[in-house]
Amino acid sequence: MAARTQKTSVNRRQFAPVVDLPARNVEPKTQLGARISEAKYRQLKLAAVLRGVAVQTLVEQAIEEFLANHPELLPDLARSRRSKSTPRKPR
Q1: End-to-end CA distance of the chain
Q2: How far apart are CA 91 and CA 89, in angstroms?
Q3: What is 26-75 written as a DSSP string?
Q4: 45 near 55, Cβ under 8 Å?
Q5: Cα separations (Å) of 82 from 63, 79, 86?
Q6: Phi then psi for 33, rounded to 5 degrees?
């Protein structure tokens, strides 16, 4: 039998560093159905893999960041609660 030669250096991909994830919260979640192009999904999936997180986590972070950067899009909840003078009648 011929002796096997082994490579001394192995070219392997390095894993992405694990990011500090926020603590999991126990708030109820709802499913978000959005249609995006396959190319955009591949980019999103690649970004998630490179950061070491799930696509869901990356999407949640993106939504939180968007809402934080655009407060004018959110209704003023304190004002809308005060404006309701009579409670809604049950059906």
Answers
A1: 86
A2: 6
A3: ------------HHHHHHHHHHHHHHTS-HHHHHHHHHHHHHHH-GGGS-
A4: yes
A5: 27, 5, 10
A6: -105, 110
Residues 6+ apart with CB under 8 A from 51: 16, 19, 58
> Quick one: tokens of 24?
């999991």
Q: What is the pLDDT of residues 45-79, one digit of tens each?
A: 999 999 999 999 999 999 999 999 998 888 876 55
| Half-sphere CA count of 86, side-chain side, radius 13 A | 3
- DSSP three-state, residue 87: coil
**Number of residues in the chain:** 91
